[in-house]
Amino acid sequence: MSLFSRTRLPSALVLALATLGLAGCSGGSISNPFSTFEPAPLPPAQENLPSMPPAFPPQDIVGRWGLAAFHKVEDRARTEAAAADQCKQPYIITLGPSGGVMMHLADQATPTELRLKGAPGNRTFIGPAEDPPGGQQDREVVSFDGRVLALRWLDSEVQGRYGTMVYVRCGPEGEKRPKPKAAKPKPAPRAAPKSVQPPIQNIPPAR
Prior knowledge:
The protein is α+β, with helices and mostly antiparallel strands. The protein has five helices and eight strands, in the order αααβαββββββαβ. A hairpin with a 3-residue loop joins strand 4 and strand 5.
C-alpha cells in the first residue's frame, strides 16, 4: 500500500496499521471525559490551550498493545477486534527517561519521548513536551478505559492517512487462555431394589 510504503515506521506498527485496509475498506472510558469518538473541534491554532494535569498518568498506558485504525466510527468494533489480533506482534509503550512515554510521531522510524498534557474540558493530549496542549503534532485521547485506548491525530493530513488509532491492551506475555472445565460425568442411576418375596409359611392342615 502506498499509505505505508512512504513511511518508515517499525514493522510491527506497519503491520498493525495495515489492518486499516480490512477494518476501513470493508465497510471505553474513564467516566465521561472520553465517551465519544467525535470530540469537539479545537480552537484556532493561535489560541493555545492552557496546560492542566492529564486525566490519567503516563504509567496507565505503559505496556504491550495490539494496534489498528479506522476512519469510520461504525468500524470501531471490528477495528478493536483487529487490534487484539495484533498482540502477536505488539506495539510496546515504555516510560521515557523524563517521565513521559516512548511512542512514535507520525512518519518517524524511532520512538520519541512524548508527554501527556491536560487541557480544559477534561481533554488529554499526547505529544512533544515543548508544544502546548493541542499542538500540531499531538494526538488527542478520544477514549480510554484502561483496556482500549483511542487516539486522534490533530494534523488533518496525518489523520486522513492513518485514521483514529485504536490500542487494545495485550495480556501478560506467555499468558495462556484458561481451558474450559470438562463437565463432570453424571452418576449412574441406582438400580431399583428387587422385590423380595416373603417366605411361604407352612400352614398345618385342618383337623
